[in-house]
């Protein structure tokens, strides 16, 4: 069974990535590895931990209805999200990685964040970049 | 029938993108629109035109064996490749776009080219970024 790795954050772009990753997994009978990455250290306080638990509940709700087999890896090991994603993709020999991009806002120009750039460049496999739908928060 | 749009240049990253796009099209019974973009003007001389024809022959050879329905659009209308790709994707309501990235060389750091960045940011649909295999020219 092939594996699709998806980077998840509890924001519109993370949900868009998760939705698309689940569709792709279903299409090719793949399983999903959902990576929720935190640097940790002093910035990972109890508020963040609670928000993170809520996010994982949201992931489960979004995925349980799809029937796609999945696992969630919550990583707190001092790495940037891009490093965590690439490392997991290498470890599980991912078919591809799905990441979410922030959509251009009405007032500001969208630029490609450093994490997205690093995943695109460092990934050992293709990367599917998905934008959040208009109107999603 | 859904449509996958792929940016093609006669280089390793273009061939990698085309190969992956054909696999994805087969998987979901989609058709392919292969976009080969040239700015035109004085830079599009007869040498380039000949190279471009050779490239299209190569595309046909690579795709005819797959059984995937496809069309090749060779665009010479003064636009950057990113603009052409995004415009075609909008026009055909593409399921997604496939682009090739150059792999990091042993001596130089890979950076994300401006065309790749623009496609990722401006595309009306997800973008699958594929790297050339090691050892491909």
TrEMBL record, chains A, B:
Any single Pfam family the record assigns to this protein: Usp
InterPro entries to which the protein is assigned, alphabetical: Rossmann-like_a/b/a_fold, Universal_stress_UspA, UspA
Domain UspA: 2-131
Top-rank taxon, per record: Bacteria
Family recorded in the similarity comment: Belongs to the universal stress protein A family.
Protein name: UspA domain protein
The organism of origin for this protein: Kribbella flavida (strain DSM 17836 / JCM 10339 / NBRC 14399)
Lineage of source species: Bacteria, Bacillati, Actinomycetota, Actinomycetes, Propionibacteriales
């Amino acid at each position: 069974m092939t594996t699709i790795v998806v980077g998840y954050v509890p924001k519109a772009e993370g949900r868009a990535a998760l939705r698309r990753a689940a569709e792709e997994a279903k299409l090719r009978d793949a399983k999903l590895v959902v990576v929720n990455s935190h640097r940790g250290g002093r910035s990972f306080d109890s508020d963040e931990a609670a928000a993170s638990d809520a996010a994982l509940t949201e992931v489960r709700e979004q995925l349980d209805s799809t029937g796609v087999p999945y696992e969630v890896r919550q990583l707190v090991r001092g790495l940037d999200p891009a490093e965590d994603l690439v490392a997991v993709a290498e470890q599980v020999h991912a078919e591809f990685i799905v990441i979410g991009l922030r959509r251009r806002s009405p007032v500001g120009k969208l630029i490609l964040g450093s994490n997205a750039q690093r995943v695109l460049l460092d990934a050992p496999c293709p990367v599917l970049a998905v934008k959040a739908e208009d109107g999603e928060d």
